[in-house]
Specification:
The complex is a heterodimer of chains A (about 450) and B (about 375). With about 450 residues, chain A is α/β, with parallel strands linked by helices. Chain A is built from 14 helices and 16 strands. In chain A, the strands form three sheets. Chain A has a seven-stranded mixed sheet, covered by helices on one side. Chain B has 16 helices and seven strands. In chain B, strands 3-2-1-4-5-7-6 form a seven-stranded mixed sheet, with helices on both faces. The longest helix of chain B has about 30 residues. Classes of the chains: A alpha/beta (about 450), B alpha/beta (about 375). The structure holds manganese (II) ion (MN).
Chain lengths: ~450, ~375
């Protein structure tokens, strides 16, 4: 049986319903995926606009929520930074769906390898058992592991815009709209909730440029974020806004995406390109480090408490970014309760996309949208109506900016999420975070038998 | 361990139970079949979590976290390997309490001591202490539901490694029994709430071999948290004034969750409630400071301390031991582990004798580092 064309679409439909596909189709799919992935370099080139996602960990229904919030494939370009499997109940359906989408829309979705895409780790953390349970044999696990070996180790996003075209979505009820900077400003960061409401907006503290841009801007709709226009669902900020943002900005550096982080054995991206990646994740060495390491508040390098990879400090990141002409490293791998966390003056960001991780942690999830330089093609506003309005839960803070005096509690919390944005050598790309919560309980079809030992009892 | 002590969730459901403290027997007749079925499911869920605790211990032993030759003897299910973060959590909890108990037993080692373990379940501590301190003058008591003590005694009768530790010549293990009594080890089958309900008309049940004048350590690992705060206070008062004379040095070690109000804590409460598990004192004493104050108010006035298990892992475990434990398994769940460890605490409080001099607990625990 072949899985080309309509068969593939049928498999996608079936997987979207969270139903596994037959073993022979998995074999065929994995074969096709390998053929595709083998052509990719260790570091895949990706053009903005793109939406960058962190760990999924088999939380299928939350992956569906992610697509609802971020836009569907192929309308939105996606880059998933690994850890598709393990821990959640639906690793198989989640990974196979992503793989189907990769085979169906190879230029629209990029998958890179996480430390859980490994034979050894999946036997400890659940994916192996899940395959065995769902198919009665480990063949499917084996096919998937063969695909893991071909996944790229990183991605390099180029062509991202330095400024966001502001969303003209409504401001969340929980936010004081007075605090939202004017949409004409040079918007560096915007945080939206799952309904597309603005939770936070931060204007780059530059200068004459942004006021020049605001002079040139005659787009009434996007310059009045205070007056929500929820009925307007068309593309945001066309016309004057676009040209003003596009033409007057200096270019941002590239964005390196990798699951874990840096390696003491790697000082240039070209050295990543030279690795032999088509193997099980080794216990040590550069490939292992890229998938296992974590940034930490230390100087230089440190031993990782995970037993693999290293800890690396701000100096390492700044040096690496400078040497490789990067403005940002995006990585996943660490649970962050707020869904994302910028560190080291916004030179590195952790993106975490598994809400209420392991159905236990209570965290929200996030995805990171990077727009295309010189146009607004990347930002199509999502509809607001599906769940009704109203700000919910997590308030990421008001909008005085990370350095404002008299910080409120929200601001203090915010600046731990968003690093100090000042004084960076290279302007980072405009960053739009969409933050979302776990899919509603009733939609997730929790298995009757809950996993044991959730808590210490 | 005391998962088994999740007792009797039916009495937590309120007045329609008729308030029977030994709810397992009472009030059955009035309910329809579906309700009966529901209760059966619930009961078996409770038994499942009990064996789950035993299984967690076995997992830790098999992987080398803990040295406990007795753990597997109480586990009835085939062992399954637990996730590394759960193994680490079980390790921290067990070694933290071991640490406090060791300090107690090694302070004035020749003087007699008493331990009362509430909701002891399948806990192996008595047997481990017997090996570690063969000369200690220790009187050990375990209190738990009859169904749990029956199962425990079944295991003890079955395995010679266990019953050979007991003076069975003079104090035989009787078949099918749910209780055991000897000068060194006692298993008391009872519902802890019967200690709270007592009044002058109905005095608390007799606990054979409990010595009212020997320095006594009371242990509650995930046990009292399943009861109402007022019930817990009454139970502790019964121990401190009825079973023990008011001048006897006494202490309490609690191991239980804290921080119910943050995202992780709220999720925990909601997840457990879907399993019909309610933790009333978690919200009554949400933070470490609340735990310390309740210890003091209960009468442990000479010391009342607490630390979360993350603090304990960082500060009580030696660097060499940390390295040993970290090398046992690759642990990918670091952030989750930190979250989990921050949401469980050990709190310990004591009263010295009335003499005004420093007594055994002050000497044993004064230097133990708490979280400030
Ligand atoms: Mn990871």
């Amino acid at each position: 049986m072949s899985i080309g064309g309509s068969d593939l679409d049928r498999a996608i439909t079936q997987l979207r319903a969270c139903k596994p596909i037959p073993e022979n189709q998995v074999r065929e799919l994995c074969y096709k995926a390998r053929e595709l992935l083998i052509e990719e370099g260790n570091v895949v080139g990706v053009d903005a606009p793109v939406t960058i996602c962190g760990d999924i960990h088999g939380q299928f229904h939350d992956l569906m929520e992610l697509f609802r919030v971020g836009g569907d494939v192929p309308d939105t370009n996606y880059l998933f930074m690994g850890d598709f499997v393990d821990r959640g109940f639906y690793s198989l359906e989640s990974f196979l769906l992503l793989l189907c989408l990769k085979v169906r829309y190879p230029d629209r979705i990029t998958l890179i390898r996480g430390n859980h895409e490994s034979r050894q780790i999946t036997t400890v953390y659940g994916f192996y058992d899940e395959c065995l349970r769902k198919y009665g044999s480990v063949n499917v696990w084996r096919y998937c592991c063969e695909v893991f070996d071909f996944l790229a180790l990183g991605a390099l996003v180029t062509g991202a815009a330095t400024s966001l075209t502001p969303t003209d979505g409504p401001i969340a009820e929980s936010i004081q709209s007075m605090d939202i900077p004017d949409a004409d400003c040079d918007i560096e960061i915007e945080t939206l909730n799952a309904q597309g409401e603005i939770m936070y907006r931060y204007a780059r503290n530059s200068d004459s440029q942004s006021s020049a841009a605001s002079q040139a801007n005659s787009n009434a709709a996007s310059s009045s974020p205070i007056a929500p226009t929820p009925s307007n669902t068309g593309p945001a900020g066309t016309g004057a806004t676009s040209s003003a943002n596009g033409s007057s900005k200096s270019e941002t550096g590239a964005v390196l995406c990798v699951h874990g982080g840096l390696s003491p054995l790697i000082d240039t991206i070209d050295k990543i390109r030279l690795l032999d990646r088509k193997q099980e994740v080794p216990h040590e060495g550069a490939m292992c480090d890229l998938l296992w390491s974590d940034p930490d508040e230390i100087d230089g390098w440190g031993l990782s408490p995970r037993g693999a990879g290293f800890l690396f400090g701000a100096d390492i990141v700044k040096c690496f970014n400078h040497k490789n002409d990067l403005s940002l490293i995006a990585r996943a791998h660490q649970l962050v309760m707020e869904g994302f966390k910028e560190m080291f003056e916004s030179t590195i960001v952790t993106v975490w996309s598994a809400p209420n991780y392991c159905y236990r942690c209570g965290n929200v999830a996030a995805i990171l949208e990077l727009g295309e330089d010189g146009s607004n093609a990347g930002f199509v506003r999502r509809g607001n109506g599906e769940r009704g309005g109203g700000g919910r839960g997590w308030v990421l803070g008001s909008n005085d900016g990370p350095n404002a005096n008299g910080m409120s509690n929200e601001n203090r919390r915010l600046s731990s999420v968003l690093g100090d944005s000042m004084g960076r050598p290279r302007d980072g790309p405009g960053r739009r975070y969409r933050v979302f919560e776990a899919a509603p309980q009733d939609s997730r079809g929790m298995p009757a038998k809950k996993p044991v030992a959730d808590y210490f009892l | 361990m005391a998962a088994k002590e999740i007792p009797d969730l039916r009495t937590l459901l309120g007045p329609r139970r008729g308030g029977g403290l030994r709810g397992r027997g009472g009030g059955r007749g009035g309910f329809g079949t579906s309700h009966e079925e529901k209760e059966a499911v619930r009961d078996s869920a409770v038994r499942g979590t009990d064996q789950d605790a035993a299984g967690s211990r076995v997992s830790c032993v098999e992987l080398g976290y803990l040295d406990d030759p007795y753990a597997e003897l109480f586990a009835t299910q085939a062992s399954t390997r637990r996730l590394p973060l759960l193994n680490r959590g079980t390790y921290v909890r067990t070694s933290a309490i071991d640490n406090l108990v060791d300090r107690f037993l090694t302070t004035s080692p020749t003087s007699p001591k008493q331990v009362i373990s509430l909701g002891a379940g399948t806990d192996t501590r008595f047997f481990r202490l017997k090996d570690k301190y063969p000369n200690a003058q220790l009187i050990y008591h375990e209190l738990d539901f009859s169904s749990n003590t029956t199962a425990k005694l079944h295991s003890i009768r079955k395995h010679s490694q266990l019953h050979q530790k007991l003076p069975t010549n003079t104090h035989p293990l009787s078949p099918q029994s749910d209780s055991y009594h000897s000068p060194i080890y006692n298993i008391h089958p009872l519902d802890l709430r019967s200690l709270a309900a007592s009044s002058s008309d109905t005095p608390p049940p007799n606990l054979p071999n409990l010595d009212p004048s020997v320095s006594t350590l009371i242990l509650s690992e995930m046990c009292l948290i399943y009861l109402q705060a007022s019930t817990v206070s009454s139970i502790l008062k019964t121990f401190l004034t009825h079973y023990l004379s008011p001048t006897t040095p006494a202490s309490l070690i609690l191991y239980e969750p804290i921080l119910p109000h943050d995202a992780f804590g709220r999720t925990m409460i909601s997840n457990l409630s879907t399993r019909n598990i309610v933790l009333p004192t978690l919200t009554a004493y949400p933070e470490l400071g609340d735990q310390r104050m309740r210890l003091k108010q209960c009468g442990f006035i000479d010391g009342y301390k607490g630390a979360d298990t993350r603090f304990i892992w960082r500060n009580w475990v030696s660097e060499e031991e940390k390295e040993r434990v970290a090398s046992l398994e690759m642990l990918d769940e670091l952030e989750e582990l930190e979250l989990l460890l921050r949401h469980y605490c050990v709190a310990w409080g004591w009263r010295d004798s009335a003499s005004g001099e420093k007594d055994v607990f002050s000497k044993a625990w004064e230097d133990t580092r708490e979280q400030v």
